Amino acid sequence: MSLSVLTPEEQVLSALERISSLKIPSCAVHVAMSELSPDNRGYRQLEIVSRLFEPLLSHTQSRLFLLSNNDFLLLIAYPVLSMINDTLERIFSLFADDIYFSKSKSKEFSRIFFLDKQERALREMLHVEKADVPVKEIPLKNKIPMVMTKELTPDILEKLLYDIEQTNPFDFMRRQSVIRFDKNATNEEVFQEFYTNITDIQNTFAPDLNLSSNKPLFNLLKETLDARMMKGLFDLKLISYPKLISLNMNTDTVLSPLFEKFIKTIKSKLLIEFQLSDIFHHFELFEKVCRKLRENDIQYAIDDVGINEFELLNLESFDVPYIKIRWSDKWKGKEQKEQLSNFISKHSTIQFVLTHCSSGNAVLFGCKVGIRLFQGSFIDELCARMTKEKCTFGQECSLSECMVRRAVLSGALRNRCVHQPHLDIYMPLKEG
User: Do residues 68 and 129 lie in contact, with contact meaning Cβ atoms separated by under 8 Å?
Assistant: First the structure.
């Protein structure tokens, strides 16, 4: 008896049937690797692009397919547009010099299909992809592995949590400064965000595991990581503590007995950040958590809001002190400036933070629309430059080494710094 093997396109169509029956918000993201020049669509390039999808796969209910012609297609439930756009921007930046982008395009390099309105167009596209002459096939021994072939089960989660428990919690903890730039060109550190890098955890312990395939178990994992981080912060010994520490947490974590103990012992004031998707899924619980935080004089924030999600925010019902907006390099037109400026001016009591600032253009843009708080790799670099400049031993390390040592909270990387007090102290940035 012969067994028929489904093509990737048939696998996608089968998955589409299941998603359609659930009637949940979902979309498909298509990246046309087959349109690129041959040098840019080999095994190595496919592997890199698959890795760029990992943050989306780690934080959402999604599945990635490699089509017959080596295009990528991602099916995602409850999509977060800011994360999708950020991923597509990263992929585009890898191939921006490809000849494809200098000629008339036969089709878009990347495209998002919203399944409630564009499922038919997606199905038609899949039939075309299947009929196309495929690009040169990758040899079987080098075939890119299907990303996240395992689903999260109770047994796998139990082993994963055991493996995490055996490690130093500081191995996966990082921090970033949030800086305020005032109109008179002065600047100050407003708070530091401490966070557990879940992508690093996945790459270390379970690179082939679809962490978000089981939402309840994934939430349990996140709550366990929150608890691990809080326990780690009990033992944290910095030379100088920031005035305000920001932590990204689940709503359930804030209601736990461990959090009660944590807020009584932490040496800094706290700001708790919540993901927009978690708020929408459990709004009543979010309101309860916010009341508890206010009673304990703890501030809170909505994290990772995209420009297309502004219309979803009824800020009168949220009563939130901080909102973090994710920067995009595509925000160069008058339309985005007006949209952001109008939104910010209508909510003058809220402090907006522009995150993922990768260049000075982000800071300049933010200042023009009324944002004063900034976070991201560009801010990390500025802080490291000032640290090196004012450190007696600054010539003994590179800028990248200083950035890494400032980002970690403990361990061998930090210990290589010969003047650790400077790692914990904010050095005001030079004007201009």
Answer: yes
Q: Does residue 198 contact residue 229 with C-beta atoms inside 8 Å?
A: no
Q: pTM of the entire structure?
A: 0.64
Least confident of 66-70, 136-140, 161-165, 287-291: 136-140
Instruction: Please count the residues of the chain.
Output: 432
* Distance (Å) of CA 390 to CA 69, 179, 383, 393: 54, 18, 11, 9
Annotated domain spans of the chain: 8-147, 151-424
**What does the pLDDT read at residue 105?**
52
Q: Three-class SS of residue 190? A: strand
Residues sharing a CB contact under 8 Å with residue 342, sequence separation 6 or more, in sequence order: none
For 208, phi then psi, to 5°, come to -105, 15
Give the helix, strand, coil percentages of the chain, each rounded to 5: 50, 20, 30
280 pLDDT band, cuts 50/70/90, is confident
Q: Is the pLDDT of residue 378 over 70?
A: yes
> What does the pLDDT read at residue 244?
93
Q: ∠ CA(210), CA(211), CA(214), 5° rounding?
A: 95
Among the CATH numbers 3.90.640, 3.40.50, 1.10.3470, 3.30.70, which is that of 8-147?
Answer: 3.30.70
SS3 145: coil
* DSSP secondary structure of 72-133: EEEEEES--HHHHHHHHHHHHHHSTTSGGGGS--SS-SEEEEEHHHHHHHHHHHHHHHHHSP
Q: Evaluate whether 110 touches 91 at the Cβ level (below 8 Å).
A: yes
Superfamily of domain 151-424: EAL domain (3.20.20.450)
Contact 119, 20 (CB under 8 A): yes
pLDDT in tens, 15-53: 888 887 777 888 899 999 988 888 788 777 887 888 888
Cα 231 to Cα 395: distance, rounded to the nearest angstrom: 36
Give the C-alpha separation, 393 to 46, whole Å.
42
Using 50, 70 and 90 to split pLDDT, how confident is the model at 180?
Answer: very high
Helix axes 334-346, 360-369, angle to 10 degrees: 50
Q: How many CA atoms lie within 13 A of 223 on its CB side?
A: 17
Shortest CA distance to 230 belongs to which of 211, 199, 256, 204? 256
Report d(CA 283, CA 292) in Å as an integer: 14
